[in-house]
Specification:
Layout: H1 11-14, H2 23-39, H3 44-71, E1 73-77, E2 83-88
Antiparallel strand pairs: 1-2
Helix pairs in contact: 2-3
Length: 92
């Protein structure tokens, strides 16, 4: 009988814990992963595994940044320099 390989787990399922992370915690873990990969102190198989986790962390950070950006509003000032209201923030 041949050795059956288990079905591939989707990265989203494999890294389900990331969805509950704060931006700061996810970024800190991502920086740790990048440091380990840059130093080359992990074997190939583990490098692949932590690289995939790093991709999931990066995607999570990107989503959180986009959500935060959508909430940011820019103050509008009138001719006298007094605030007159707000408008959606647009990154230039």
């Amino acid at each position: 009988m041949e050795n059956a390989m288990p079905p591939a787990t989707k990265p989203a399922n494999r890294h389900a814990d990331i969805g509950a992370m704060t931006f700061e915690r996810a970024l800190k873990e991502l920086e740790h992963i990048v440091g380990r990969l840059e130093r080359g102190d992990v074997e190939l198989e583990e490098s692949i595994t932590i690289y995939e986790r790093g991709e999931a962390l990066k995607d999570h950070c990107d989503r959180l940044l986009k959500q935060a950006e959508a909430k940011v509003e820019k103050l509008t000032l009138g001719a006298g320099g007094m605030p007159t209201g707000t408008e959606p923030f647009r990154a230039d």
